[in-house]
Amino acid sequence: MITLEVCCGSYEDCINAYKGNAKRVELNSALFLGGLTPSVGSLVYAKENTDLEVICMVRPRGAGFCYTDEEYKGMLIDAMMLLEQDADGLAFGFLHENKTIDVERTKEMVKLIHGYRKQAVFHRAFDMVEDVEEAIQQLISVGVDRVLTSGGYSTALEGADVLKSLQAKYGDKIEILAGCGVNASNVIALLEKTGVTQVHSSCKSWVVDPTTTSERNDYGFNKDMYDIVSVDKVRELKEKIDEYGNV
């Protein structure tokens, strides 16, 4: 069975993913920054109004994944708050400045998450490492349940060979979630090339908010559009996945 996870930036996105027949979402805020920690309210509302499995991002800022001690302490507090409100798991990633896995912080976060009997997911910070083999072995050694990855490339299709290798070598020890650039037009090719059983997609469309600018002012830095999850794109992707799974 192939699992679809939809990347969501709001409660509304979760509802749209749900209407499109997704079963699992990764809940964020600020997707234009690569995804940051969501509000507790969006998690609570999503859990109250759907039966989605909700994985929450824990990321305090944009840019990379090497955090100060103060940022890290705040991440642990956010993590506990989200877990207390019944998040099904947390997505996170810790790197050193040399782009290797910060094993100690990863281990501590995994211990916290597993203390609530939830899922520990290492996100695409993994795609910044130079030694993929060493990195995934480190994640396995500290008990990470799943890794979201494009195979270290700009898209999952470009990284298909790496994803195939990771799935074949380590798929029985850690779940491989293929993401980045996945859509209804390429998902079957990705599944066939890699053998992965989980895919991650944004399924996004764009909406214009006319209140962003006026003749005298530009509040949105020339950006009057925001992305939302498209019900139709989720449904189309899910249908393609189900079609592949039923062959």
Runs in which pLDDT lies below 50 for 5 or more consecutive residues are none
Shape: globular
Percentage of residues in strands: 15-25%
Superfamily at the CATH H level?
Copper homeostasis (CutC) domain
SSE pattern: EHEHEHEHEHEHEHEEEH
Helix vs. strand class: alpha/beta
The average pLDDT value, as a whole number, equals 95
Q: In which range does the helix fraction lie?
A: 25-40%
Instruction: Please count the beta strands (DSSP E, at least 2 residues each).
Output: 10
**CATH class category name:** Alpha Beta
Task: Give a concise summary.
With 247 residues, the chain is α/β, with parallel strands linked by helices.
Overall description:
The protein is α/β, with parallel strands linked by helices. It has helices at 11-19, 40-49, 69-84, 103-115, 132-141, 160-170, 187-194, 231-245, and strands at residues 3-8, 24-27, 53-57, 89-92, 119-122, 146-149, 175-179, 198-201, 204-208, 225-229. The strands form two sheets. An eight-stranded parallel barrel has the order 1-2-3-4-5-6-7-8, surrounded by six helices. Strands 9-10 form a two-stranded antiparallel ribbon. The longest helix has 16 residues, at 69-84. The N and C termini lie close together (11 Å). The mean pLDDT is 95.
